[in-house]
Design goal:
With 295 residues, this protein is of the alpha/beta class. The chain has two domains: 122 residues, no CATH class; 109 residues. 27% of the residues lie in helices and 14% in strands. The chain has a seven-stranded mixed sheet with strand order 2-3-6-7-8-9-10. A three-stranded mixed sheet has the order 1-5-4, with no helix packed on it. Strand 7, helix 4 and strand 8 form a beta-alpha-beta unit.
Amino acid sequence: MSILPLPSDPPPLFKDLLVEPEEARSILRPQKDERYGFGFALSPYRGCGHGCRYCYVREYPNALHGPGDWGGWVAPKLNAPELLWSQRHRLHAQRVFMASATDPYQPLERQYRLSRRCLEVLLLCPTTEVIVHTRSPLVLQDLDLLRAFGDRLSVGLSIPTDDDTVRQTVEPRAPAIPSRWAAAERLATAGIQVSIGVAPLMAVHDVQAFARRARSSGASSAWVGGLRLLKQDPFCKVLADHGWLKVLDPDYVKGIRQAFREVFPVRRRTPERPENAVAPPPPPIHQPGLFDRVG
């Protein structure tokens, strides 16, 4: 596996990050979600430079890296857009989630633009719905492309706490909370459907103000998700040391959810697809002749 040489003076967020470009063998992972019922998860990267200390992906088996290395390496799937293009026939009348195991707009997206190139493929799949989920305002660099999807795309912004001092402890490499609110407002102003994901729920300073802030950002919906811990998770000590073990209390989670229900109307998401929608045609196949030059 080759390691991409970084610039001689990389931006601070890229320092100490091992970048291991790879050729992926597959790009669409069938997945079922209680809220969205989406058909496929799409991750243009393996690993995540945000390195959130609670991330459940730490436990996934990896031949080269252990849980303690999470956040220190990223493998861009260089052929992700081409793989997606070759598999687009599977996406007819399906929903795609970007991304379940990595942030599609982590810092390396500035350089590789794999998420944008995958979105360009999805734009050409007229019956496919897309859900982009991120915690980064970097998503705004593709505002023009996101708008082109119309009502078949939505963006979820992860804002697990209203207190950026909490964020600095649990998500030290991720963007600041105020920048995420600003991103939500710009997306909503541009006419893009925005959802606030309070997930995984961390310590909240002012529950009622938090819920009202989410509503005033222009988001059309919000949801609260609990923390998924690993077996004997060292993150429990982080919570204990800061007095945040309450986030594991079901009653605490229930109270936060109730506060959000009071400001966001509860509605079910039901897909609406044209009855006469057709799948995109397969790419033309050129069979070389006997005397055609190859290469």
